[in-house]
Amino acid sequence: MYVVMIASECAPVAKVGGLADVVFGLCRELQLRGHSVEVVLPKYDCMRYDQIWGLQVTYENLWVPWDGGRIRCTVWFGFVHGLKCFFIEPHSFQHFFDRGAYYGFSDEAQRFAFFSRAALEFMWVTGKKPDVIHTHDWQTALVPVLLYEIYAGLGMGDQRVCHTIHNFRHQGVVGPDLLWATGLGRPEYYGARDRMGDEQDPDAINFTKGALLYANFVTTVSPHHAWEARHTDQGCGLGHPLHEQQRKFGGIINGIDYAMWNPEIDPLIPVPFNADTVAAKEGNTQALRERLLLRDAGRPILAYVGRLDPQKGLHLIRHTLFWALANDAQFVLLGSGSERAIDADFRHLKQELNDNPDCHLEIGFDENLAHLIYAGADFVVMPSLWEPCGLAQMIALRYGTVPIVRACGGLADTVFDWDHSLRPQSQRNGFVFEHADHEGIESALRRALGLWREAPALFRELQAQGMRCDYSWRLPAQSYLDVYDFIRHR
Ligand code: ADP
Questions:
Q1: Is 177 part of any domain?
Q2: How far is the CA of 82 from the centre of ligand 1 (A)?
């Protein structure tokens, strides 16, 4: 199959968050299975150019229709860890992608609407006819609309689109005048409630709603989150349109990169181990204690690795820290805040606890330390208020670190409670709680530490079971291929 991904991020060359990892991980798995995959990205000035091999101009004068005129673009080609990538560089006074950052500008909708139009124009002029075009999040949600309304009539009528929503909180909501710039025009037609009209703002269009209507299939990043998006406020206003399009909407869990996250060969941890030698993990626990100056008191280590964002259940992370200290456990946190106030709050907490030999807070982003924490901790806590998929719990499982999670989004699809689950005992891999309050998380913490202290052999079994779960891209890639096949033959 021939697949073209159009996205605003791809790891490691242009990465802000999980979207980048998903685009890269899925592409790599599809390629390994013999499919032909290409990625189209903006050519940001702030990209990791050291991660691109053989970067060269592949199309000199791509004139992209825009705002009643045309903008000249240069298209570059290079390999990102073996993946074929095209980078679109517009030459215009707006400097869409020459701003020293990926996101955060007032004309965000224009920037990515232009990119969507440019990606299709490039495919059209170069005669690319993939079986499937896969777009991601609001930034490229106009692609299926433009494809159907403009490029189908120019010979691209056979191309099918799969659109993935990674984050319902950002949908691309903007005034309908932008439609003139894209070449679609007719704001009164597209802005109607049953097309791209935003559900909450009657004077705005919504890119993601456009993708919902025009794409041949729409996915989000876990089956449980797909359910939440339709039936709870997690859909952020898209519940009704999702309901209407339910026949072409579903959830596919993300995978993690099993080459990068592999405790048997991870160069960032001192003692390699696998599910049969899980006791060797202890060597990494010692290394973690030494690195973070924790005392060696035979206490279990609870950890949190992730963004310090209200989404992650910050009050429960804080509560876990103090609960751990009061219950003869140790606590390690590695995270950075998305807001200055949150960052400051946790720095203050760090200062307060500076002399405590049973906890360590590291405020910042540190890939190396993250590997050591996953390898050395006994438990990872994820009390998220919402979590479309979540990667940290899957990484923890891979490293024999038992996840303690709230039952939401992808956490509910990947972690199965040791004591209470519909799954057979042999498939249970962690501890799960429902309510986002102190009692909720404490009930899981008590059971988790109880097993660690009173039944070490069973605890080892639980760790090994977690390590044997397969959360690689193998199954998710197959699910995407099934979707591609489904839309190709409809
Ligand atoms: P989200 O995408 O909401 O941030 P995920 O759990 O899906 O959360 O993915 C977060 C990823 O980023 C994980 O791989 C986690 O290890 C990593 N990560 C998050 N914060 C940090 C940090 N401060 N230092 C190192 N790695 C981090």
A1: yes
A2: 24
List all residues whose CB is within 6 A of at least one atom of ligand 1. 17-18, 305-307, 334-336, 365-367, 370, 389-392, 395
Ligand 1 midpoint to CA 392 (Å): 6
Q: Which domain holds residue 148?
A: 2-255+474-488
Amino acid at residue number 412: A
Number of domains in the chain: 2
* 80 and 112 part of one domain: yes
Can you tell me the distance from the alpha carbon of 254 to that of 296, in angstroms, rounded to the nearest whole number? 36
Judge contact between 332 and 370, C-beta under 8 A. no
- Looking up tokens 């405790």 gives 263
What is the per-residue pLDDT across 176-229, written as a single tens digit (0 to 9) for each?
999 999 999 999 999 999 999 999 999 999 999 999 999 999 999 999 999 999
- Give the separation between CA 6 and CA 116, rounded to whole angstroms: 8
Q: Report how far ligand 1's centroid is from the alpha carbon of 214 (Å).
A: 32
**188 CA distance to ligand 1 centroid (A)?**
42
Q: Averaged over 416-437, what is the pLDDT?
A: 96
Backbone CA torsion sign across 395, 398, 402, 403 = positive
In a domain, 267, yes or no: no
**What string of DSSP letters covers 48-92?**
-GGG-EEEEEEEEEEEEEETTEEEEEEEEEEEETTEEEEEEEEES
Decide if pLDDT at 17 tops 90.
no
Residue identifier of the C-alpha nearest atom 27 of ligand 1: 306
Residue 102: closest CA among 17, 169, 159: 17
More confident residue, 15 or 446: 446
Distance from the CA of 312 to the center of ligand 1, in angstroms? 11
The residue contributing the CA closest to ligand 1 atom 18 is 306
